[in-house]
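Cross-posted from the bioinformatics board.
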Amino acid sequence: AQKVTQAQTEISVVEKEDVTLDCVYETRDTTYYLFWYKQPPSGELVFLIRRNSFDEQNEISGRYSWNFQKSTSSFNFTITASQVVDSAVYFCALSEAKWTGTASKLTFGTGTRLQVTL
Amino acid sequence: DAGVIQSPRHEVTEMGQEVTLRCKPISGHDYLFWYRQTMMRGLELLIYFNNNVPIDDSGMPEDRFSAKMPNASFSTLKIQPSEPRDSAVYFCASSPGQTQYFGPGTRLTVL
């Protein structure tokens, strides 16, 4: 069975601080995908990034960066110089990948609520 | 481009009533997923379709829930009869493969 653990329930930071959201996963699959989604106060789920299990390169997109370490089954998300607009609940998710081009159910973590204040 | 469209956005109904939630996926996406979000259980998959065919409905709570996808551009999730414990946000998501894109959700309240 797949499992995603986000141990940090809530994090509060002051604007411009850096913050890292942790994600640890469990799966028996050798091929899988990892995702991060953002849920702002308005409630929608916004896709941020997808990583497949064969690609351990870290990724940076603006103020966002992701660190994927297969050895520790972790896929952590860092926001640099946080802003008030980053306040949201962030979900890490995992899906199996039977073969390229297919989709499968997402197993979500419980989410981390990030509060950024002035 | 239009994203995933869900209707209604909010639904308040009384216990025992039938509720129908609707979803229009992104054009060209072969997969459609229904998820439910509650405080107690978080985000959980109810059912998903590939090319209009149900693939995994193991998350459907019980016989009161049913989902259909009569064509590539429309899906429904029906609850009959509804119960207060069905109160949740129901999300529809579509995917061309791998990444899922979510609709805005339907907030269902069953009194």
